[in-house]
Design brief:
By secondary structure, the protein is an alpha+beta fold. The protein contains four helices and ten strands; from the N terminus they run H-E-E-H-E-E-H-H-E-E-E-E-E-E. The strands form three sheets. Strands 3-5-8-7 form a four-stranded antiparallel beta sheet. A four-stranded mixed beta sheet has the order 4-10-9-6, with helices on one face. A two-stranded antiparallel ribbon has the order 1-2. The chain is elongated, with a radius of gyration of 34 Å.
Length: 279
């Protein structure tokens, strides 16, 4: 049982603990008066407003150095990569089962929507074999050369809406990545080879897999809104001897100064994919 001498001590400790939050004698909260708290809050308000103002000023100055139409630094990507559609590096399907290749057909059809005549008729019929150079205008808008899906002939999906997959002679589409200001020297074209001993015949559309100079240079997404990349379609004329085999195919950009042999980047100017057709 606690002694009478301990009770005043307990009351004093309780009072001291409560006074640390609010002292009714001095009016202090957590050891500070109202005016002291007001000065501290005012200091931090001014301090953080100053930091926000400095950040906003820095961002404003930085944005003044940027161009809405052309990136300031473009030296990291001097050469374009090569990509294929359908968007897969491993094409495997049964030509007798539409469910096995319908995903590829749908992807190609969706991808080619921007190349329909209804979309391309508003673009320019440019001079072949020449760069389509355009001077700067006040609104910075650039015209684009037309590329209709009909240019892809048997791989356009117009005469054969299965793109050859139902016949075991599939089409793949190739395009170069966009690089602002790129003007390839020479006459670029796409060349594909099978990386095994078997020889496969291929058809190219447009003829010889040519990529015309009139689609260069590219002026950027904002200035060149209607621009579409030129395509090369490759139709693989597989025979029964080629079925049930996994065939690695490598496609490269040739006939130009664009690099296609960088061992550190397997997609720079080239792309390798595998195809397997099952009966």
């Amino acid at each position: 049982m606690a002694s009478t001498e301990d009770k005043p001590a307990n009351k004093e400790n309780t009072s001291s603990w409560k006074d640390s939050f609010y002292n009714p004698r001095t009016g202090e909260v957590l050891g500070r008066t109202g005016s002291s708290w007001g000065l501290i809050l005012l200091f931090y308000l001014v301090f953080y407003c100053f930091l926000a103002g400095m950040f906003a000023l820095t961002m404003w100055v930085l944005l003044l150095t940027l161009d809405d139409y052309v990136p300031k630094y473009r030296d990291r990507v001097p050469y374009p990569g090569l990509v294929i559609r359908p968007n897969s590096l491993d094409l495997s399907f049964n030509k007798s089962d539409p469910l096995k290749y319908v995903q590829y057909v749908k992807h190609l059809e969706s991808f080619l929507q921007r190349y329909n005549d209804s979309q391309q008729d508003s673009n320019e019929d440019c001079t072949r074999g020449e760069y389509f150079l355009q001077d700067d205008t006040e609104d910075m808008t650039k015209k684009a050369c037309l590329f209709k899906r009909g240019f892809l002939s048997l791989c356009s999906g117009l005469s054969d809406n299965n793109f050859g997959y139902s016949d075991g002679k599939p089409c793949v589409l190739l395009k170069m990545n966009r690089i602002i200001g790129l003007k390839p020297v020479g006459n670029p074209y796409i060349n594909c080879t099978v990386k095994k001993e078997s020889h496969i015949q291929m058809q190219y559309f447009p003829s010889e897999g040519r990529i015309d100079k009139m689609y260069f240079p590219y002026y950027g997404k904002k200035a060149h809104e209607n621009y579409v990349q030129p395509l090369v379609a490759v139709k693989l004329l597989l025979t029964k001897d080629d079925y049930n085999k996994e065939l690695p195919v490598e496609c490269k950009v040739e006939g130009t100064n664009l690099r296609n042999d960088d061992e550190r980047d397997k997609f720079l100017g080239r792309v390798t994919f595998r195809i397997k057709v099952v009966e």
